[in-house]
Structure of Bicarbonate transporter-like transmembrane domain-containing protein:
Amino acid sequence: SVAINRSLEDKRSGKDGNKMAEGGVPENEVKKDLDDSIKDVVPTLRVFNGAFNDFRKRFPYYASDFTDALEYRCLVTVIFMFFACIAPSITFGGLMGKYTDERMGTTETLLAQSLCGVIWGLFSCQPFIIQSATGPVLIFEASLTRLCTILELDLLSVRFFAGIWIFLICLIVVAFEGSWMLKYVTRFTEEIFAVMISGIFIFESINFIRKTNMDNPVEDYSFYEHQHHDCNQTEVSVRPCQFGEPNTTLLTGLILFMTFFLACSLRYVRSTIWFGKHVRNIFGDFGVFIAISVVAFLTQQLFPDPILARLEMPEHLNFTNLAKRGHGIFVIPRSTDTPISIGVAAAAALLVFILIFVETEITELLLTRKERGLVKGSGMNWDLVLVGFCCLLCSLFGLPWMCAAAVQSLAHCSSLTITKKDKLNPNVMVVERVIEQRVTTICVSLLIGAFAFLGSVLRLPMASLFGVFLYLGIMNLAGVELVKRTALFFVPVKYHWVTSYTKTMKVWRIHLYTVIQLVLVVIISIVKQGTYTALAFPFVLILFIVFRHTAIPKIFTTEELAALDADEEHEEKREDRDGYTETALPI
């Protein structure tokens, strides 16, 4: 243990004789960036060689992963990450209940995140990764629910078999070191994926208001008086029938947009000169949680009458709706439709594996970039097996599938990064060291699990959760080059901002590349909205990857693709940048 600690200190300080990269990280440890590190991955003929190597390299640091956590900064990080994770968890949990007809909801989401988070904190090679519900997987769960309803299959039974298939697929991929396939996922596909998911977030938020208006039309007193008269009631205030309310639509829109604008405003504070730096960061980091809390409190105080759709939560720790769930703690598949369920589950597992694989592996690579300053390493193969095992457990207990949340994971790493002024440029902050440990991940996961015991206290307005959904849809577009290049259609050439492609390419060539991406966004959106094709949108992403590496090189030169489909080098690191601008992956 002493030798390991001394080795870590040598790596951080450069005493092992290695030339130091920016931030105090040895160049021979992490000198490759995201693209180069993947290109160097070459599969071997030894089965599970990659997973065993990951485990063998990371295991010697296991003891130090707990002793290194004995710092005050780790306690602060636990509090910070709990609030950073709980708001998206509640939001996705509430929407999960809506999309799955309450077979799984907020309680199940919180318990799944707690269970998977503890397992991940104990056994993963990269404990900085936060396991959480994510937008792409939520959209997939909604599509799977619709398909099961059409085929008259039990959703949780299908998910039970799908969990087994996912774990087997993960084992097969890891056995032959399939992580090398990630090198084919470029920014071209990531941007299409991000824009599609953001579009769904925004559409679902607006559609929620539209459906609310259909059930509760904005009409005058006489309209509702006639409705209640037909139900043998003459007083509008008496509501024995399930009729709409004249103020529900207006209140729903007010709460949704109030949550959205408050969250956006608090995030904007980060880039202003108001308050001090730490206060600005608090507002930026906890903006979503503050927005939900403030709006929920005002709604409860001003509109206590239950005329608004609210998050369904049991009074005590229990499943969201035991009757609709149809299973106990463990899912026992129904024998009547088992053969069909197994077949549907196999197809669903392959498709959801694509999402889990891309999100987990890209998040892991983002954390291993040299500017992050990590020295203990990670393990893409071993961690993929662990993700598959977590999916298997979630399917067994009838819980939502969890995978890596890129934004929260990057925030987790940043909160444990200690910086110092660069000796050559005092105005620039560089990484001195990172507190690499497992305790914060485990503690945050346990706190999230304990939050599920609050029960009916979490009966938040659904409009507020859709306000967060709208916020995530807009924020997911931050830093996406496709959005910036689309804006170039409306900007005169002399005002084009300076990037690698505006400096080296003709404008019409840039527009051609953008139009191709926009057409593909429309195609995958149409597939996603189809009743029978919605489940296949991850497969369409695979086709786009093939299209990128076969057709696109015939249209654009190597130099043009290097400018359009590669990360900007030497990008300035600003204080107002956060997880949304660090990655094109949607939350």
Notes: The radius of gyration is 25 Å. The first strand starts at residue 20 and ends at 21.
